[in-house]
C-alpha cells in the first residue's frame, strides 16, 4: 500500500471512531435531566462536543474520500511537522506483532492481578521474562537476566508498598 | 517472524521456570504461618477510607487506629487504606471485594447517606453492618466579618426583603447544599448558589467577595475564620469552642446535622468480629489523648453502638430523601 | 525567617529535606509514579515525626517530584509527572537530535530559576498576592482557562482539523463521571466505576507512557553500542542566561500566578507559559520540533507553580491542589492548621515551609546537576529491561493512586487510544490539553451563570475576566490578522 492510500484509510477509520464517540455523547446527553440551577445544564457541553466532533470527523472523512491529489500536496508538510508521529507509524509498520504482543502481555498481567488474584511477585516476574523474550536480543541469557530483574523489582516494590506504605497490590 | 516467536516462547517459559523455583522458597513459609493462628483478629484489619489522606475522616481513623495499636486493644494492627473516587463507589467496591470476615471495614460519615439519597453508586444501607460511631462534629454558617448583616436573623430579613439577593457557596447535591436547603425551607427564604465543591473553594469564594454565605466545619472556622463571622451552628447544643454562636434550634429552626465518624463492615460480618472491633473503638474514643484532640478540633467525642447508629442513620436518610426530592 | 533557616540547618531537618528531594526526583522521574502519590503514600510515616521534620520531608518530595519529571519526558517522551507534559513536546525531539544533555541541563536550570523566583514571591509578598488572587471568582477562572485553550489552539501543528478533533475528543473523555456542577452522574452508562470519571493520572500515563512503550516495542532492536558516559562539561553557557533569561522570568511569573490560583496546578501553568512563549517567540514554527525555549518555558513554570501554590496554603490555609491538601493533612495531624493564625501560633512551621522550599530547590539543583551525566545514560539501558520496568511501575502507580484496578484498565485503554491517535496523525498535545482544561472551564462557566442567575452580561463588571477574554479572542484571531497584515506590507513594498 502506498503512503497516501494508507493515510486515507487511517483517516476514514479515525472519522468512523470519532463518529461513534459523538453518537455516544448524544445518547448519554439525551438521558440527562434538564438544567436546574443554571441555564446551561449537564447536557450542553456533551451536545456541543458531539456536534464539533461530528463536523470535524466529516471533514476528515471527506478529505480522505476525495483522496490522493490533495494529500500529495499536503503530505510533505504534515509529515515534516510531526516527525515523531510519522516515524512512529513507520516503526509500527516495521514490527506490529511486537506491539500486539506487548499489549497482550500487559492485559494478561493486569487481568492476572485483578481477576485471578495471582501474587504480585509471580505475575511481575513472568511479565518481565515475557517482555524480555519479545523484545530482547536473541539470547537466553538476556531473558534470564531480565526475569531476575523482574523478581528483584517485584520484591522491592512489594516490600516498600506493604511494609511502609500499607498498600497491598492485588 | 514465526520462528522468532516460537523461540521467544521457549525463552519465556524457561526464564519463568527459574523465577518460579526462586519464588516457592520465599512464599512457602508465609503460607505455613497463616494456617496456625486462631481467634479474631489473626491478621491486620484493613480500614478503608473513601478519601485521599489528610481529611477529617482519614485523620480520625488514623488516630484511633494508632491508639488501639499502642494500647494493644486488638491483637493485630488496623491499617488505613485510602480509596478515593466515585462518591464512595471505589471504597465500597474494595469493601465488598473479599469475604465479609471483619478484616476489611470502612470508616466514613453520614456522607454515605448523601450518596444513597442522591442515588449515586449502587449501594444501600442494607449492604452494611454498623460497628458504631466514634464521635462527630457539626458545621456552621459563616459570613464575611465586614458584611452588613451580623446574625442569621439579619440574613433572613435581608433575603425576605430581596429574595435571591445573596449568594451561597455550595456543592450542589452535597452536605452544604442539603443543610442550606433544610434551613431555607424552615425559615422560608431563597438564596442563589455558586459551585464550591470543597472547603477551600468555599473559603476562597467567601473571602473574595464572590459569595456571601458558606458552610464550614467548626474546626475550619476556628483556624481559618479570621475574617469571617459565624452566624449559626448546626449542632444539637452550642459548641464549647464557640460559646457565642447560637444553634439553629435555639433560633427556632429545626435543623440539626451532627456528622458522625461511622465505622462500617460489610453485611454478613460475624458478630464476634464486630464486637471485638467495637470494643476496641469504644476504649479508644474514651482515651484522654483522643478526647483532647477531638475537643481541640471542635469534634464531640462520644460512643454510639452499632444498632443505635444504624437506627439514627435510617431516620436521617429518610429526611435527606425528602430534601433530595425537593431540590432535584 | 533567619531563625527558620537556622532551624533548617539542624542535621535532622537537612537530612529529611535531602531524603525528600532525592526520593522526589527518583519517583518524579519514573513514569507512573508522581509527586502527589509519593506525598500521599509517605504521609502516614510523618505522623510520628516532629512537625518540622515532617514538613521538610514533604516539601522536599514535592519540589523533587515536580523537577524529576523532566528526565523521562526528555529522554523517553514519557512525562514522569503530569506537570512535565509540555517538556515532551520539545525535550524529546531535542534528545532525538542528539542534544539530550543540553535539554536536561536547560530543564534543570529552568526548574531552579522558576523555583527561586517563585520563592522570592512567596517570601516577599505572600499576603498581597494572596489577597489579589482571592478576587478571582468563577468568571475570572473561566476567562483565564478559555484564554489558555484558545492560545493552545494556535499550537496546533500539522493539520488544524485533526488538532481540533484531538482537542474535542480529549474534552469528551473528561465528561463522564459526577458532573461537579450539579453533583449527579453523567455519561457513565450505568458503570459505577466511572462515577469519578477517567482519572488524570491513568489517562496521562496511558496516553504518553503506555502508548510510547507500545510504539517502542515495534522499533527494530537497536544494536546497543558500548556504554558511554556523556562529557563532564554540560553544554550550557553564560550566554544562555541572556538567550533564555526573559523567557525564564516571564514563565516564572506566569507559573507563580497560576500556582497561586487554587484548583489550577503545575500542568496548566506549564501549558500556558509554553503557549505564551510560543506567541512571543520569533520562530514559533520551531516549537514542537526541539525548540529550547519550549523546554525552558514549561520547566520554569511548573516549578514556579509550587511556590505560587504554597502562598494561599500558608497565608489562608487554602490548598491549591491535591498535593497541598495532603500537606494540610500532615499539619492537622500535628494539631497545626495552616491559615492566618499559623504565623502567630507556630511561626517555626510557617517560616519553616518557606525556608524549606528555598533549600529544597538548591538541593534539587545540586542533586540533579551532579548526576545528570548518569541520568542521561538511562537512554542506553537495554530497551527490553527498561520498558518492562517502566511498565510495571505504570501499573503499580495507577493502582496505588486509589487502590483501584479500574484505574489500571483505564490506563491501558488510553495507551491504545493514544497509539491509535498518533497513527492517525492526531497530535496528543491538544488531546491532553482538552482533557485537562475543559472540565475547569465548564464548571467555572456554569458556576458563573449560577451566580449571576443566568445573566451573561455580568461579566462586563469583571475587569480581570474581560481582559482575559480580549486576549483570548486576540490570540484566536491573531494568525489571520498577521497573515493579512503581512500581505498588505508586501503589497505596499511592491
Kindly summarize this structure in a few lines.
With 328 residues, chain B is α/β, with parallel strands linked by helices. Chain B contains 11 helices and 11 strands.
Which characteristics define this entry?
heterotrimer, B: 328 residues, alpha/beta, D-Maltodextrin-Binding Protein, domain 2, 2 domains, six-stranded mixed beta sheet, C: 494 residues, mainly alpha, two-stranded antiparallel ribbon, 2 strands, globular, Tripartite tricarboxylate transporter permease (chain C), membrane (chain C)
Major sheet description of chain B: 6 strands, mixed
List the total number of helices of chain B: 11
Whole-number count of domains of chain B: 2
Terminal Cα separation of chain B, in Å?
61 Å
Annotated CATH homologous superfamily of the largest domain in chain B: Bordetella uptake gene, domain 1
Portion of residues in beta strands of chain B equals 15-25%
Structural class of chain B: alpha/beta
- Order of strands, main sheet of chain B, comes to 2-1-3-10-4-11
What is the number of beta strands of chain B? 11
CATH class of the largest domain in chain B: Alpha Beta
> Helical percent range of chain B?
40-55%
Description of the molecule:
The complex is a heterotrimer of chains A (170), B (328) and C (494). With 170 residues, chain A is mainly alpha-helical. Chain A has 2 domains: 3-94; 97-164, no CATH class. Chain A has helices spanning 3-30, 44-66, 68-81, 83-94, 96-114, 120-135, 140-164. Residues 69-92 of chain A have low confidence and may be disordered. Chain B has helices at residues 2-36, 56-71, 89-95, 111-117, 152-161, 175-187, 199-207, 218-224, 271-285, 288-296, 306-327, and strands spanning 45-49, 78-82, 104-108, 128-137, 139-144, 167-170, 192-195, 213-217, 228-233, 259-266, 300-305. The longest helix of chain B has 35 residues, at 2-36. Chain B starts with a helix and ends with a helix. Chain C has one domain. A two-stranded antiparallel ribbon of chain C has the order 1-2. In chain C, helix 10 runs parallel beside helix 12 (292-316) and helix 16 (383-402) crosses helix 17. The longest helix of chain C has 35 residues, at 100-134. Chains A and B meet through helix 6 and helix 7 of A and helix 1 and strand 2 of B.
Amino acid at each position: 500500500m502506498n503512503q497516501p492510500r494508507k493515510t486515507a484509510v487511517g483517516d476514514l477509520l479515525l472519522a468512523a471512531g470519532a463518529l461513534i464517540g459523538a453518537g455516544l455523547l448524544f445518547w448519554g446527553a439525551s438521558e440527562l435531566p434538564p438544567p436546574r440551577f443554571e441555564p446551561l445544564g449537564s447536557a450542553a457541553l456533551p451536545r456541543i462536543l458531539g456536534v464539533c466532533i461530528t463536523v470535524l470527523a466529516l471533514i476528515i472523512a471527506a478529505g480522505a474520500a476525495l483522496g490522493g491529489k490533495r494529500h500529495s500536496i499536503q503530505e510533505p508538510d504534515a509529515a515534516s511537522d510531526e516527525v515523531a508521529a510519522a516515524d512512529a507509524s513507520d516503526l509500527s509498520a516495521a514490527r506490529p506483532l511486537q506491539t500486539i504482543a506487548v499489549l497482550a502481555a500487559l492485559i494478561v498481567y493486569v487481568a492476572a492481578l485483578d481477576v485471578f488474584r495471582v501474587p504480585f511477585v509471580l505475575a511481575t516476574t513472568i511479565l518481565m521474562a515475557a517482555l524480555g523474550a519479545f523484545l530482547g536480543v536473541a539470547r537466553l541469557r538476556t531473558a534470564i537476566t531480565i526475569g531476575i530483574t523482574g523478581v528483584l523489582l517485584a520484591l522491592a516494590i512489594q516490600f516498600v508498598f506493604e511494609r511502609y506504605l500499607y498498600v497491598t497490590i492485588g | 517472524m514465526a520462528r522468532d516467536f516460537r523461540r521467544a516462547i521457549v525463552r519465556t517459559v524457561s526464564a519463568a521456570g527459574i523465577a518460579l523455583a526462586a519464588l516457592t522458597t520465599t512464599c512457602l513459609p508465609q503460607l505455613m504461618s497463616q494456617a496456625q493462628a486462631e481467634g479474631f483478629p489473626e491478621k491486620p484489619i484493613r480500614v478503608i477510607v473513601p478519601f485521599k489522606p489528610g481529611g477529617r475522616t482519614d485523620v480520625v481513623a488514623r488516630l484511633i487506629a494508632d491508639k488501639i495499636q499502642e494500647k494493644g486493644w486488638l491483637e493485630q494492627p488496623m491499617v488505613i487504606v485510602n480509596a478515593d473516587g466515585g462518591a464512595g463507589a471505589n471504597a465500597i467496591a474494595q469493601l465488598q471485594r473479599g469475604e465479609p470476615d471483619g478484616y476489611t471495614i470502612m470508616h466514613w460519615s453520614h456522607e454515605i447517606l448523601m450518596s444513597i439519597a442522591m442515588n449515586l453508586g449502587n449501594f444501600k444501607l442494607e449492604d452494611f453492618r454498623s460497628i458504631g460511631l466514634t464521635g462527630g462534629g457539626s458545621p456552621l454558617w459563616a459570613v464575611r466579618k465586614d458584611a452588613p448583616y451580623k446574625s442569621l436573623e439579619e440574613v433572613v430579613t435581608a433575603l425576605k426583603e430581596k429574595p435571591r439577593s445573596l449568594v451561597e457557596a455550595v456543592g450542589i447535591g452535597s452536605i452544604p447544599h442539603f443543610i442550606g436547603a433544610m434551613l431555607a425551607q424552615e425559615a422560608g427564604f431563597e438564596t442563589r448558589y455558586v459551585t464550591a465543591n470543597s472547603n477551600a473553594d468555599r473559603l476562597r469564594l467567601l473571602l473574595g467577595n464572590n459569595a456571601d454565605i458558606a458552610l464550614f466545619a467548626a474546626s475550619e472556622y476556628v483556624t481559618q475564620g479570621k475574617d469571617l463571622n459565624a452566624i449559626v451552628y448546626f449542632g444539637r447544643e452550642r459548641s464549647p469552642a464557640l460559646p457565642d454562636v447560637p444553634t439553629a434550634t435555639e433560633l427556632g429552626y429545626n435543623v440539626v446535622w451532627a456528622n458522625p465518624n461511622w465505622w462500617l463492615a460489610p453485611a454478613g460480618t460475624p458478630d464476634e468480629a464486630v464486637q471485638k472491633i467495637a470494643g476496641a473503638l469504644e476504649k479508644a474514643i474514651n482515651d484522654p489523648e483522643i478526647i483532647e484532640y477531638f475537643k481541640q478540633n471542635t469534634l464531640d467525642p462520644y460512643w454510639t453502638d452499632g444498632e443505635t447508629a444504624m437506627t439514627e442513620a435510617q431516620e436521617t436518610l429518610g429526611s435527606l430523601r425528602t430534601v433530595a426530592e425537593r431540590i432535584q | 525567617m533567619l531563625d527558620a533557616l537556622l532551624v533548617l540547618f539542624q542535621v535532622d531537618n537537612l537530612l529529611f529535606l535531602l531524603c525528600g528531594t532525592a526520593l522526589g526526583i527518583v519517583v518524579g522521574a519514573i513514569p507512573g509514579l508522581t509527586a502527589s502519590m509519593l506525598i500521599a503514600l509517605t504521609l502516614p510515616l510523618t505522623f510520628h515525626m516532629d512537625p518540622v521534620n515532617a514538613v521538610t520531608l514533604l516539601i522536599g518530595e514535592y519540589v523533587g517530584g515536580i523537577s524529576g519529571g523532566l528526565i523521562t519526558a526528555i529522554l523517553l517522551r514519557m512525562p514522569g509527572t503530569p506537570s512535565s507534559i509540555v517538556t515532551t513536546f520539545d525535550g524529546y525531539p531535542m534528545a532525538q537530535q542528539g542534544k539530550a544533555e543540553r535539554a536536561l541541563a536547560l530543564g534543570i536550570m529552568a526548574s531552579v530559576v522558576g523555583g527561586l523566583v517563585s520563592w522570592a514571591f512567596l517570601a516577599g509578598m505572600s499576603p498581597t498576592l494572596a489577597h489579589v488572587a482571592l478576587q478571582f471568582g468563577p468568571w475570572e477562572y473561566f476567562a483565564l482557562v478559555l484564554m489558555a485553550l484558545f492560545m493552545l489552539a494556535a499550537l496546533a501543528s500539522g493539520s488544524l482539523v485533526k488538532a481540533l478533533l484531538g482537542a474535542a475528543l480529549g474534552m469528551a473523555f473528561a465528561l463522564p463521571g459526577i458532573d461537579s456542577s450539579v453533583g449527579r452522574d453523567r455519561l457513565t452508562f450505568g458503570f459505577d466505576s466511572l462515577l469519578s470519571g477517567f482519572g488524570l493520572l491513568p489517562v496521562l500515563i496511558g496516553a504518553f507512557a503506555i502508548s510510547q512503550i507500545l510504539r517502542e516495542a515495534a522499533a527494530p532492536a537497536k544494536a546497543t553500542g558500548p556504554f558511554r558516559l556523556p562529557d563532564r562539561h554540560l553544554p550550557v553557557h553564560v550566554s544562555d542566561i541572556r538567550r533564555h533569561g526573559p523567557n525564564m522570568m516571564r514563565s516564572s511569573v506566569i507559573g507563580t500566578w497560576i500556582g497561586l490560583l487554587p484548583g489550577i496546578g503545575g500542568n496548566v501553568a506549564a501549558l500556558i507559559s509554553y503557549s505564551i512563549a510560543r506567541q512571543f517567540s520569533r520562530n514559533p514554527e520551531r516549537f514542537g520540533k526541539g525548540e529550547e525555549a519550549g523546554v525552558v518555558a514549561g520547566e520554569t513554570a511548573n516549578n514556579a507553580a509550587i511556590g505560587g501554590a504554597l502562598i494561599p496554603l500558608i497565608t489562608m490555609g487554602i490548598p491549591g491542589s491535591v498535593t497541598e491538601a495532603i500537606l494540610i493533612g500532615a499539619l492537622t495531624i500535628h494539631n497545626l492548621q495552616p491559615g492566618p493564625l499559623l504565623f502567630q501560633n507556630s511561626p517555626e512551621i510557617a517560616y519553616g515551609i518557606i525556608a524549606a522550599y528555598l533549600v529544597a530547590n538548591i538541593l534539587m539543583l545540586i542533586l540533579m546537576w551532579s548526576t545528570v551525566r548518569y541520568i542521561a545514560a538511562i537512554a542506553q539501558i537495554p530497551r527490553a529491561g527498561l520498558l518492562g520496568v517502566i511498565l510495571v511501575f505504570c501499573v503499580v502507580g495507577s493502582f496505588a493512586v486509589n487502590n483501584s484496578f479500574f484505574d489500571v484498565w483505564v490506563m491501558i485503554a488510553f495507551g491504545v487510544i493514544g497509539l491509535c491517535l498518533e497513527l492517525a496523525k492526531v497530535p496528543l498535545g491538544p488531546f491532553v490539553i482538552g482533557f485537562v482544561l475543559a472540565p475547569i472551564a465548564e464548571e467555572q462557566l456554569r458556576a458563573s451563570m449560577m451566580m449571576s442567575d443566568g445573566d451573561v452580561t455580568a461579566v462586563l463588571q469583571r475587569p480581570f475576566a474581560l481582559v482575559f477574554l480580549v486576549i483570548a479572542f486576540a490570540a484566536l484571531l491573531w494568525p489571520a490578522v498577521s497573515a493579512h497584515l503581512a500581505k498588505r506590507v508586501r503589497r505596499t513594498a511592491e
